[in-house]
Specification:
By secondary structure, the protein is α+β, with helices and mostly antiparallel strands. It is built from nine helices and nine strands.
Length: 231
């Protein structure tokens, strides 16, 4: 299986022993040795291995990495990091006095300047903010106000709570997302993931009067997954 050879190949490329890697991801050396031979890791361990090497699970499972030249491999890994939306920037956020992250509110008016200010701590710090204790503390959330009727039955002016996506390859077909792009600013759409095929997202509206359109991954700046509408 490709996964087993990829784990061994990436470990040797990183120039670490089985004991060192095993200790870093919290497993025994003997388990890691098994993973490099013919034993499949649990999903939790697979995610830890993915994070340890800085590559996607999809790449670990699908790409026979040792067949590439070093130059091509570096290019492939850098592209994988880019498509996941990582290493682009650090998300600007706000916290309360205890260090808990707050939920910033982006109104229709604020959306007009969001593209220019989303990475500016002063801009984000000036947004209204609050907390919702029932939301997971290990996720970053932000509220956006819907603009227009393209996502009916969610109406114009509705407030939606969204969760920050740091891995764009994890965008799920048919789910709703707030997409921030260089050309269109902040848009709320139903997304279909074509990143692996052609490095694009297909964005559709809930209202059939609006035509679908594609956006290139290179134009993406932020992606937020819709969680709930505030009444």
């Amino acid at each position: 299986m490709i996964l087993h050879s990829n784990i061994k190949f990436l470990r040797k490329r990183k120039n670490v022993t089985q004991a060192t890697m095993a200790d870093s991801i919290g497993i025994s050396r003997s388990k890691l040795a098994g993973y490099e031979l013919n034993i499949n890791p649990t999903l939790e361990t697979l995610l830890s291995i993915s994070d340890y090497f800085g590559v996607s699970v999809d790449m670990l499972l699908r790409e026979e990495l040792e067949k590439y030249s070093e130059f091509k491999l570096r290019e492939l890994l850098e592209t994988d990091q880019f498509l996941r939306g990582r290493n682009l920037r650090i998300l600007t956020t706000t916290v309360d006095a205890t260090g808990r992250e707050l939920i910033e509110v982006v109104s229709q008016r604020a959306k007009a300047s969001y593209l220019a200010g989303f990475a500016d701590p002063d801009y984000i710090g000036d947004l209204p903010r609050f907390s919702l204790p029932f939301l997971p503390m290990d996720k970053k959330h932000r509220v956006f106000q819907v603009d227009g009727d393209s996502m009916l039955p969610i109406p114009d002016g509705a407030w939606i709570v969204c969760e920050y996506m740091d891995d764009w390859t994890a965008i799920k077909d048919g789910e709703k997302y707030v997409i921030v792009t260089e050309q269109d600013g902040v848009t709320f759409k139903i997304a279909y993931n074509q990143i692996r095929e052609n490095e694009k997202l297909l964005l559709c509206s809930g209202n059939p009067l609006y035509k679908p359109f594609e956006v290139a991954v290179s134009d993406l700046r932020e992606v937020w997954r819709y969680r709930l509408m505030m009444v």
